[in-house]
Amino acid sequence: MHRPAITGSGVFTPDQVITNDELVAAFNAYAERFNAENADAIAAGDIAAKAPSSSDFILGASGIEQRHVMDKTGVLDPAVMHPQFRQRSDDEPSIMAEMALDAGRKALEQAGRRADEVDLVICAASNHERPYPAIAIEIQQLLGAGGFAFDMNVACSSATFGIQAAADMIRSGSVRCALVVSPEICSGHLEWRDRDCHFIFGDVCTALVLERAEDAKGAHFVVRSTRCATQFSNNIRNNNGFLRRTRPDGLKDRRDMQFMQEGRKVFKEVLPMVSAHIAAHLSDEAVEASDLRRLWLHQANKSMNDFIGKKVMGRVPEPDEQPNILQDYANTSSAGSIIAFSKYSDDLKPGDAGLICSFGAGYSVGSVLVERG
Predict the structure, then answer these.
(1) 156 has catalytic annotation
(2) Which candidate in 156, 177, 186, 357 is catalytic?
(3) Packing angle, helices 263-284 and 302-313, rounded to 10
(4) CA–CA distance from 335 to each of 41, 103, 108, 329 (Å)?
(5) Which of 49, 191, 301, 358 is 20 to 30 A (C-alpha) from 223?
(6) Average of per-residue pLDDT across 162-174
């Protein structure tokens, strides 16, 4: 058995930024337009009027101040309210592959590895822009990697599940060097017309290089242990899919074709699940909470992270023990905890332990216990 290690990380951040003020201005213009167009139905009680949003509401509910997106023009157009991308030919790289190439090359550079030394590529993301051929195989080809590749989707836990899959294959000897990429275009499945969630998501791509610890060329993090768990729930759901056109209402503009969640239920049910998951993981590895130098948690909501951090540590964590990045990136699904890890890990000393954790729809939760090598 070989010891896996994370030897490089990379983040692709879109250039375009939407601030809360910009987002609120667009949403409120849309709401006014909607209310005017449906005034009679609203007066009759057949349709509910759309209430305005506010920057204070967004910040208080989530801790988010801005988000990076691949296209802001469409999102901020009250007549559109979603990103708009040009149609690419089948001979062009997909948008997810382009994002992954940028993040992947940064991770490989940090690890001191060439692309042709990679023998496994996992594209672990909450959505994929097509069913087949796999985005991961396209990335493998564009990057010049060898071996094999496959896509993985466990919603917001995709990256940590991808880490476990890669780490297990490294442990067994079936691969020597793996690249786990998470190109998240969350703006594409977010319902920007819904006040309760229009502020939640942003776009980004992360990448991690995993290889045998003995092969590491520099500073790295040994993957001491990984743990994943799932429990079915409808409280976070998206009903879009390839069978959509077979349904009676076909391609009708339906609310459930985008991101939906029962936020209060999620908060009530997921937080105990995640806290217990982490506690059991640490206990089984004989690691005390006081031994953890850092928690890199899923960046969905500041209140959720604060709750989990306090539950795990037994006290309110210091800011550098539980870094948040969602104020700048918003919720980036599976990539969130990896952004936090990539940006806030260089200062750890050899022997320092930390834990990466992501959680979300499924329900799903994945945790990765690492130690600075």
Answers:
(1) yes
(2) 156
(3) 30
(4) 41, 11, 17, 10
(5) 301
(6) 98
